[in-house]
Please model this.
Amino acid sequence: MSSISMSATDSQPTPAEYLSRAVALATENVRDAGGPFGAIVVSADGQVFEGVNRVTANLDPSAHAEVTAIRNACQGLGTFDLTGATLYTSCEPCPMCLATSLWARIDRVYFAASRHDAADAGFDDAVFYRYFEGGPEDRAIMPVGQESLTPDERVAPFTEWNANTSRVDY
Ligand SMILES: Nc1nc2[nH]cnc2c(=O)[nH]1
Model:
């Protein structure tokens, strides 16, 4: 599916070339009933995995282009750890995509459009950044609060995790 052209010297595509491809994926995806976002993960050894936004198509709020590309890379490579990989995305990653990139241990992110460009198109990326940046008074759109369970009950899953000698750390 990828159609990044290689130069005559057969060198790796530049970040701008990967971003152009991500933008083209995003535009094509609109014509395929998806959101206007596309992303590419290039693994440490140069393998290319693409993803597009399928939120409304798949009834999946987490199916942002970046998350889809990261899922494709993890499935394709058989790992949950993308250390050494680079993410190229048609638009600045939203907080969820940024957090997913951190959890995937992606090394570096390049983006084309900004959260403000996304806002101009009606998307809430900038609103959600403000939600995380602000204090409790800015959290009105979705209040988050800790409830008072006993300390033992509250940390019981972590106690079980720490006692589990066959756990897989991530
Ligand atoms: N970066 C990015 N922002 C979004 N906002 C809504 N959907 C998306 C997406 O798939 N990617």
In short: Helices lie at 15-31, 55-58, 65-77, 95-103, 115-120, 125-133, 151-154, 156-163.
